[in-house]
Amino acid sequence: MTATKIKEFIISISENLEKEYKTSPGKPWLTLAGSTILVTFLGMFYLWVYFDQYQMIGFAALEVNDAYSLLFNNLMPMIYVALILSFFLLILVPGIIKNNLRNTTGAKLSGEVIGQEGSMGLSNMAVIIIILIIHAGLYVLLQVYEFGALPTIVFLSGAALASYLYLKIANRAGIALAVLMCFFYAHVRAIRDVKLNEKIKPKVNLVLSSLKDPILTERNRCRYIIYNTSSFYYIKDSCEKKIYAFSTSTGEWKSKTVK
Length: 259
Known about the structure:
Number of helices: 8
Helix content: 55-70%
Radius of gyration: 25 Å
Shape: elongated
Oligomer: single chain
Structural class: alpha+beta
Strand content: 5-15%
Largest sheet: 4 strands, antiparallel
Order of helices and strands: HEHHHHEHHHEEEE
Distance between the termini: 67 Å
């Protein structure tokens, strides 16, 4: 390849990056209602994987509210990372304003209606930068929760492929792969949280108003909390090799023998 062709190739790439990105026409496939349903299923899937590690499927009582509580408890790290990364997005503001002004001026000169469908005022380069920033945020989030090298590579590779499919080939295929990666994240995260819980064995002084004796104390060397939902406290007794479920409302309890 000669120097002239290399120069032309570089110029072509530069011009393509400066072009305004156009979204594909059509209604959004994943609506707000769809997102709410997805979040609910993700939360329930996480709890199912989590309790399955303790052989509690069919023993633990799960409700939809537990999925929402799980999401709320995990929002702060996501919000914190998003706030930090949002500052980097400020570098895109001048380019967005420039493209919007250019679109407005061009529409007035040509007599077209201002506000082109599928135009966001973003160049192709800006879209690439946004995708890279999002992936950087995802990487930070994975490191916060101590994901291993293999799950991190699989998740980020899947997210990158989903982004490419959504932007360049078929947005529905990209969204479907992104949803699959969300379930992959929930699965890995649940298993990781179980291992962490077994390592820490969290203990607190816990007394239910309907019971005289505490169901858990910090000095008890055998018992520790597995999980607490809106209706039950799940406590494991490693000495008895049992898992107890205590109702938060009635104080009634049941147990299950585990290995």
